[in-house]
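Cross-posted from the bioinformatics board.
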Amino acid sequence: MKQKKWILPVIVLLAAILLPVVFHIGLSNMSILISVLLYMYWASSWNIMGGYTGLFSLGNGIYIGLGAYLTGCLFVYANLTPYAGMLVAALLTGVFSIIIGYPTFRLQSIFYSLATFALLGMMKIIFTNFQTIFGVNVGGSNGFKFSPGNDPLNMQFSSKMPYYYIVLGMLVAVLLVSHWITRSKRGFYFRAISANEGAAASLGVSVLSLKMQAQFISAFFSAMGGGFYCMFISYVDPSKMFGVELSINVMIMCVVGGANTLWGPVIGAGLIYTINRIVTMYAPSSLNGLATLISGLILMICVFFLPGGLIPFLADEREKRAMSRRKATLQKQSGGGGGIHE
Amino acid sequence: MSEHSGEAILSGKGVTKRFGGLVAVNHVDIHLNKHEILGLIGPNGAGKTTLFNMLSGTMPMSEGELRYHGKVIPKPRSNELCKMGIGRTYQICQPFSNLTVLENVMVGAYIRHGKTSEARDAAYQVLKRVGLEQAAHSGGSALTLPQLKRMEVARALATEPDVLLLDEVIAGLNPTEVERIMELIREIRAGGMSIIIIEHVMRAMMNLSDRIVVINQGTKIAEGLPAEIASNPLVIESYLGGGKH
Ligand SMILES: Nc1ncnc2c1ncn2[C@@H]1O[C@H](COP(=O)(O)OP(=O)(O)O)[C@@H](O)[C@H]1O
Ligand SMILES: [Mg+2]
């Protein structure tokens, strides 16, 4: 039973590894694949606080953006290789996330959401209006740019394929960590806090400390993704990083797929990204924002018809079918008189 | 039962809670002796739950002092009191709806068993003890009221407390269920725990408690053996005769 659960993910992973080797994938399609994986990664990072712990952040762009700027600046100004720079950036961003999260942790969750959303707006204002921050030139509204080169030791590749494998590895890492969390004490505490803080505290859970941990882990991974993104496109655009669209999209992807599940953010990101892509391809360019509108509509449909998202819905259906099968066999065996305890 | 507080395991002195202008609990002195079952009774809105909230650190006191094993707890917090050995249930059941029954109880068990496999075993043992093992894998929100109440008790028990505060775990159950849960409470005490129990069902309380404290409108109006309480005119007037049954 236990092994069976692993078969499908392993097959999917093998397929993902072999995909660019077996097929020749063009440059633009490769970019699309990398973007999808990155969104899956970001949605999974959001899930650790937004899904499991109930810290419903509307501003994960804060951490993505900070990770991107820090990694880029460390690379350009301090010659730090992005492999280390991403880690440093993620650690710093994690600490920052606790500092800004701390005052809001004691508030009701709606205020936490609003606070993260407000802070996202502030970050955007700061990074678009200041050319230099703490004496570092971050480019102001033009964004932070550097010229791409070919230097594998600094995560600079002439082909896109290495980026594909890096982000795939990062996705696998965040999924493994999420999986490990959900099965550990910490993960049960996260979910207990999400359901009922007071009851959790009465059972010995240190609510504040665990919220900080969830926030740190989630911001850490989000920032790593930001750092990767910066190295991938050699550019950080403050209005994209700290814009509403990115943060909301990451949240929607996770919620539509199924927050609080391992595969929800992966499925959700794949679905929403594909739909957004199709809409932007075929919609007249005068209608920009249509993609966001449509993902918003999908979110509403999900909230109405599939509370919990796609994954729990599918799991429920399967459970129901299995249940009725089990019942049928039991009834056959006991001649319909089974005293099953309901 | 001796009443001097020298051997009290948990005690509150001058415990007071104000909600704005309302004094929900007014300078109540209360103590729980080792291995005792203390009944806490009083009409609806008397302040029983609020008193529990302060004894368990769920709510800060406006005034008063809490002692555990004779030592003053300067700033009682529920998670810390739980670690020290005070467990509680909620009158309005608070299941973690995103977890199964077993997992709900595991959240309690983790405080003594850090490893998931050990916490799961411990939680399962507790479920067996309260007769809920059949529902172990149902969702926390899919239970009937009696099952929910037993899960509340199971979660608190899983924290392996020395003191257990039970807030109306009998209310709303049918006579068979009441009998079962009373049996369970006696067993728990026999296992060495000290218990304060809030209940409306008078007969159950008279039967179960070693000692009873009565509060009315936030004030303690009587304290004594069940027989004394049953014949106390003040209690009869304010509680038994006050339209409450
Ligand atoms: N959080 C609160 N805020 C304001 N008033 C409260 C709160 N909790 C309880 N009260 C009030 O305090 C009084 C005592 O309530 P409670 O302790 O629940 O009584 P009991 O458990 O004895 O029925 C009631 O008048 C109730 O309305
Ligand atoms: Mg009450």
